[in-house]
Amino acid sequence: MKHEQLRVAIQGIRASFHEEAAFQYFGEDIHTVECNSFKQTFESLKNKNADYVVMAIENSIAGSILPNYSLLLSYGFPVVGEIYLPIQLHLMALPGVKFEDVKYVTSHPIAIRQCVDFFDEYPQLNIVESNDTAACAKRIRDEGLTDTVAIANSLAARLYGLDVLERRIESNKKNFTRFLILTHHENVSKKSPNKASLCFQVSNTVGALAKVLNVFAEQGLNMSKIQSMPILGKRNEYNFYVDVEWDDTKTYDVAIRQILKYTQNFNILGEYERHDEENGALPKTVKTGSRKVRKTERTENKNIKESKYIIINPKTIFRTFGLYRLPDLKRHETKFKHTTIKLMD
User: Fold this and answer.
1) Which of 16 and 291 is assigned the larger pLDDT?
2) How far apart are the C-alpha atoms of 136 and 268, rounded to whole Å?
C-alpha cells in the first residue's frame, strides 16, 4: 500500500520535541505516528506502520539516553541521518491568563530542571512533574486550566492555542538534543556519507580498545562520540558505540578494514551525512513519498562466533570490502589476522 505522506514514528505526542525534530529533518508534510515509548517506535517500524523513526539519543545537559543504544542493536534498523535540535523552553498558558494568577507549573522533569534559575525567582510557584512537555500544554487546553502554565516548545503553543508568557526560560541557552533517523533497510538511499555509527566489542586485555582508537587517529577519522554499555550476563564485557566522521571515504574504508583485526561482533549501525552544526544545513536525504531503495551497508550480527567471524549476508553489499566483487565473496573467505569474513547460508 502506497502512502502519500511519510509516516514518522516518534516517542510522545504531537508538538513534542521529537515532532519538532521530525519537522526540521523531513519538513512538515509528514504523518506523525505517536508512540508511548521508544520501543514502540521501533515496533511501529518493524510492523510497517511507520516509514521512519526519529529518536533522541543524547542531550548536551542530560547526557546519553542509554536504553536507546540497546534498541539500535537489538532491532538492527539502519541509521540514515541525524539532527541536532536546540532545546528552547517557553512558559505558556491559556489566552488571557496573567502570570500573577498562576499557581502551578507543569512539565517533564528534565525540562523543569533545565529552568531552575527562572523558578528560583518565583518560589511561590508549585512544580508538577509530568511525562511529556507537549502533553502538559495539551492538558491545559483540554481541561481549561487557568491557574496552570506549561513549559514546552513554541510548536506546542501554536498547536494547542496557548499564549507564551515568558520566552527562553531555560538556564542554558546552548542546550541541544541529538536525534537519530532510522528506517527500513529497503528505504536506505545511496548518498555520500561522511559519518558512521559503529558498535563492537574488544577483548578484556590491556590496550585492546586503544588499538581501535589508534586506527581512527592514524587514518584521520574524528571520533565524535564513544559510549560503553555492559553486556548482560558477561562480566567486564562491553559493547562500544562509536561515531566517527571523515572527509575522505577511502580513509574510512581503510580504518574499518583495520579495526576488524581488533574487534568482535562488529556492526555498522548506519552511514549517513552528518548534521552541519555551523550553519544548520541538513542533508537532503529524503523526499516526501519517495520509496526508492538500496541495500544497506552493514554487517549482520546474527550467529557471530566471538572473536572469530564477521558474518555477511550474501544479499548485502558490504562497501568497506569494495575491492571484492559479490561473486568473488561467494567463492572465498577473506582472512585477517584475527577475523574471518564468512557468508551466511
Assistant:
1) 16
2) 38
Q: What angle do CA 309, 43, 197 make, to 5 degrees?
A: 45
Cα 268 to Cα 318: distance, rounded to the nearest angstrom = 10
Centroid of chain to Cα 83: 8
Which CATH number covers residue 34?
Answer: 3.40.190.10
Please say which residue of 166, 201, 218 terminates a domain: 166
pLDDT in tens, 192-234: 999 999 999 999 999 999 999 999 999 999 999 999 999 988 8
State the average pLDDT over residues 164-169: 97
Q: Which domain holds residue 25?
A: 1-87+175-191
The amino acid present at 107, given as its one-letter code, is: S
Instruction: Clarify whether residues 103 and 116 are in a common domain.
Output: yes
Confirm whether pTM is higher than 0.85.
no
User: Which is it for strands 148-152 and 90-93: parallel, antiparallel or unpaired?
Assistant: antiparallel
What does the block give as the cell for 4?
502519500
Task: Please check whether residues 129 and 109 belong to one and the same domain.
Answer: yes
Instruction: Summarize the confidence of residues 261-287 as an average pLDDT.
Output: 76
What is the number of domains present in the chain?
2
The residue ranges of DSSP E strands in 121-218, in sequence order, are 126-129, 148-152, 163-166, 176-183, 195-201
CA 334, CA 189: separation in Å to the nearest integer? 27
Task: Return the pLDDT at 2.
Answer: 59
User: What is the DSSP code (8-state) at residue 205?
Assistant: S
Range 57-77 average pLDDT = 95
Element housing 152 (H / E): strand 148-152
Helix/strand/coil for 236:
coil
> What nine digits make up the cell of 201?
566489542
50 and 180: one domain?
yes
